[in-house]
Write a structure and sequence with these properties.
By secondary structure, this protein is an alpha/beta fold. Helices cover 42% and strands 18% of the residues. It is built from 10 helices and 12 strands. The protein has helices spanning 12-19, 39-52, 71-78, 94-111, 152-158, 171-187, 202-215, 228-235, 239-254, 270-279, and strands at residues 3-8, 25-29, 58-62, 85-88, 119-123, 144-148, 164-165, 168-169, 190-193, 219-222, 260-263, 266-269. The strands form 3 sheets. The chain has an 8-stranded parallel β-barrel, surrounded by 6 helices. It has a two-stranded antiparallel ribbon with strand order 7-8. Helix 7 packs parallel to helix 8 (228-235). The longest helix has 18 residues, at 94-111. The protein is globular, with a radius of gyration of 20 Å. The mean pLDDT is 94.
Length: 283
Amino acid sequence: MRSMLFVPGDSPRKFEKASEGKADALIIDLEDSVVTDRKPEARGLTLAMLKGRPGSHQLYVRVNALDTGMTLTDLAAVIPGKPDGIVLPKSQGGDDVRQVATWLEALEAASGIAVGATRIVCVATETASSIFGLGSYKGCSPRLAGLMWGAEDLSASLGATEKAAGGVFHSPYRLARDLCLMAAAAAEVAPIDTVYTDIDNLAGLEQETRAARRDGFSAKALIHPKHVEIVNAAFDPTDAERIWAEKVIAAFASNPNSGTLRLDGQMIDKPHLRAAKKILGQS
């Protein structure tokens, strides 16, 4: 999964348009893109979108944060539509995942869905306090599928006047980004890069996405359909990377008892093999 496109939960028209695109996943949003008065209607519309499933996209639903008191109501409304996963905003750590997992278990059973089928992706850096919970995600639940970092709400939590300059995040946001990446790696789940908000700056989007892939992120969240193909292309391995990965895998297949090998004048070991398999989408 490379691209996760947000779609407002109260707009079937935008959902239909997004479904015609090539995003790997659509996140139907019940949180920020839906005003409070429209949330009940949005829950019903979201359920209809889930049941319609017009394409092969994975479908996630971003519910409202636990501190709003609306999370369980959101989950009860949408789980009968069998979403592939839930996006939990403003998550504070592993305990939040366990709470949502407990609710999901009951709702799946009530809806005749295999218990454990619904994954959880957490937006894990939206408050100052959430940064200190990043180490608690490891082992919290087999449902946890990814950690996404976010800058917009974090800015409000910090009381900052600016997040970035010249296309480069200021240090508090780079810290949140890097810690989220490391927390995801420690928990062995997907690290997901934050949305790019300069809608028409496609060159900047590509640069940011390539930097995310370089550092280890495996996907990026998006807020505009025209960003999808740029992000997908940036996360796809280059021909040179594919050739290198195939050579590494072949070398270890020919020498299964070796921990280190010489390839094209360079020493390679098992971390290189893991990297090669990741490039080719192998486990």
